[in-house]
Specification:
mainly alpha
Length: about 90
């Protein structure tokens, strides 16, 4: 029963991690496009630059939260595996 629970939890966690990975990749791509925009500007429009800096800051904040969730999921999986080894 414990092995079945682990497999189900692993499957669910894997699916959640895949969805998080997609969201993380999308956020990183958006962040990269902001950086590229700045790199290609000869004269930066201050208002547009500020808008993009705010967007980038929000993405970074969101990415930190997403990465923390993924880290916690890895820790849960490791904990489950360690408990199964003890049984």
């Amino acid at each position: 029963m414990a092995l079945l629970t682990l497999k189900l939890n692993g499957f669910i966690n894997y699916n959640l991690m895949e969805k998080q990975k997609d969201k993380i990749s999308a956020s990183l791509n958006k962040l990269e496009s902001i950086v590229e925009w700045f790199e290609h500007q000869e004269a930066v429009d201050v208002e547009e630059g500020l808008k993009r800096v705010r967007e980038g800051a929000a993405l970074i904040k969101d990415l930190k939260l997403k990465l923390k969730k993924v880290e916690n999921e890895f820790e849960e999986i490791k904990k489950d595996l360690d408990q199964d080894e003890e049984v």
